[in-house]
């Protein structure tokens, strides 16, 4: 239940009242697959059946893209 996701943002997102749902709550994405980061858009449903101890990569970081198992998460030194 781990996945590699590429993030391009280089700073914080500022949330305000417009980010709250009808119930007044703010749902923050923790799966990394949302197109509305940092907010959850329901994309995490694609990851619900991921197995423990397996690392996944979704093609294009798209929850509807091809999902494959990878050996490990690639780290890039800068
Ligand atoms: S937790 Fe990532 S889309 Fe919901």
From TrEMBL:
Q: Where is the composition biased (Basic and acidic residues)?
A: 1-10
Q: Which Pfam families match?
A: zf-CDGSH
| Keywords, in A-Z order | 2Fe-2S, Iron, Iron-sulfur, Metal-binding
Where is region (Disordered) located? 1-22, 57-78
Tell me the ranges covered by the Iron-binding zinc finger CDGSH type domain, including all copies: 10-50
Q: Protein name, please?
A: CDGSH iron-sulfur domain-containing protein
* Natural source organism: Halorubrum ejinorense
